[in-house]
Specification:
Elements (H helix, E strand, L loop, with lengths): L2 H8 L16 E5 L2 E4 L4 E4 L2 H4 L8 H11 L13 H13 L6 E5 L2 H18 L7 E5 L8 H4 L20 E3 L16 H10 L3 E6 L3 E2 L5 E2 L2 H14 L2 E5 L23 E4 L11 E5 L1 H8 L15 H16 L2 H16 L8 E7 L2 E6 L5 H10 L2 E2 L6 E4 L7 H16 L3
Parallel strand pairs: 3-15, 5-6, 5-7, 7-10, 10-11
Antiparallel strand pairs: 1-2, 2-3, 4-12, 8-9, 11-12, 13-14, 14-16
Helix pairs in contact: 3-10, 4-10, 5-9, 7-8, 11-13, 12-13
């Protein structure tokens, strides 16, 4: 039995049936922005392996960071120990993020970083004498991960909430912002969020949202003015603000963090994906002295402690990834990605199967009028020598920042190949 046959019979892939799985393609190696398949074909990667490989594959500096740390210690428990890579990475994150976010909790992944953020909010209110604040407020169209707490604040219709009704906490959902990014705030767009805050203020622990860019929930780009207004409403109602920047952080929207578009500083910030440059799983949850000291007062502790918390290999490569990002001309690279995608994806605006085209920073989205047939579209894309992974009615790209203009043009041209599968 070869690799693909065994894989098909025994291995579950993301969001895929075991009885009728989507096809897979066997990867042999990867370098730069190209993924080499076992049959010798090369694909230009337009997904950054789910938005994480911002520096490209097989990067010599990141390889060396892993090799150097591997020669010292691959893993050591974080209970009772600390080590240089964890301290170095935490220092860089504190320097990169806006004050007063200067307390750092490391975890296994972005989804777990969200779980930690939820726990922080709930424990803060309990420890400070307001245990009735147990619910979360969020906005429709969001996605925050696949673990239970994170699922409870994913969109209850387009997300997975309905499959697990009864097992998840019942949270509060405001409408998705109507106002597009870069446009003046539409009158009344914040009204229902404000009403929920007014009605449930003493129940709500935090508002959790993806700033400016809603990722896997629909790739919607909304107004920075809406985000600024939501942050003001949280302050007025004494409700914590949790910013999930797992997809948008580290330059993807043209700012180092998407919150910067609105000048908003959250009480809790969730990071992941590009944190390690795509080398391994790692999450980080940052918060303020107010929250940390509130939880820790009278001997309290945050009730979370993953086995692989602050893993030395992961934190070492993440520390180097952050340096690599800040040393690079990432702003001009992302601006160039945006300009080229705006120009080249515009050709699809009048296509009969296209409902919308939108671009922000290093994210390009073509929304179709009906569901994309993933298996057929993927096959056509691979035959065109590119790798995109449509979902729902979206054909989108979030390429590594180091992609060349000619390679990006092949990605944007490939959108047409995917659309052809729908005719």
């Amino acid at each position: 039995m070869d690799l693909s046959d065994f894989d098909r019979q025994h291995i579950w892939h993301p969001y895929t049936s075991m009885t009728d799985p989507l096809p897979t393609y066997t990867v042999e190696s990867a370098r730069g922005v190209r993924i080499r398949l076992s049959d010798g074909r090369e694909l230009i990667d337009g997904m950054s392996s789910w938005w994480s490989v911002i520096h490209g594959y097989n990067h010599p500096a990141l390889n060396e960071a892993v090799r150097g740390q591997l020669a010292r210690v691959a893993h050591v428990m974080f209970g009772g120990f600390t080590h240089g890579p964890a301290v170095g990475l935490a220092r860089r994150l504190v320097e990169m993020t806006p004050a007063p976010l200067d307390r750092v909790f490391f975890s296994d992944s972005g989804s777990v970083a969200v779980e930690v953020a939820i726990k922080m909010a709930l424990q803060y209110w309990s420890a400070t004498g307001r245990p009735g604040r147990r619910r979360l407020l969020t906005i429709r169209g969001g996605y925050h991960g696949d673990t239970l707490g994170a699922m409870s604040v994913c969109d209850p219709v387009s997300g997975m909430h309905s499959l697990f009704t009864g097992a998840l906490p019942r949270q509060l959902f405001a409408p998705r912002p109507r106002t597009r990014f870069g446009q003046p705030l539409e009158a009344g767009d914040l009204d229902q969020l404000e009403q929920l805050l007014d009605q449930h203020q003493e129940e709500i622990a935090a508002l959790i949202l993806e700033p400016v860019v809603q990722g896997a929930g629909g790739m919607w780009f909304y107004s920075a003015d809406w985000l600024a207004g939501a942050a003001q409403l949280c302050r007025a109602h004494d409700v914590l603000l949790i910013a999930d920047e797992i997809a948008s952080g580290f330059g993807r929207t043209g700012r180092l963090f998407a919150c910067e578009h609105a000048g908003a500083v959250p009480d809790i910030l969730c990071l992941g994906k590009a944190l390690t440059g795509g080398y391994m799983s790692l999450g980080a949850t940052l918060t303020t002295p107010r929250i940390a000291e509130g939880i820790s007062g009278a001997g309290g502790v945050l009730m979370h402690g993953p086995t692989f918390m602050a893993n030395p290999l992961a934190t070492a490569v993440a520390e180097r990834s952050m340096d690599l990002l800040l040393e690079s001309p990432w702003q001009s690279r992302v601006r160039a990605l945006q300009s080229q995608m705006e120009l080249e994806l515009a050709r699809y605006r009048d296509h009969p199967l296209v409902a919308d085209v939108r671009v922000l920073g290093g994210i390009g989205v073509v929304e179709t009028t009906r569901t994309v047939p993933v298996a057929r579209a993927q096959r056509a894309l691979v035959e065109a020598g590119i790798w995109l992974r449509p979902f729902g009615s979206l054909i989108y790209m979030m390429p590594p920042y180091v992609i060349e203009a000619a390679e990006l043009s092949r990605l944007t041209a490939g959108v047409g190949a995917a659309l052809d599968t729908m005719l």
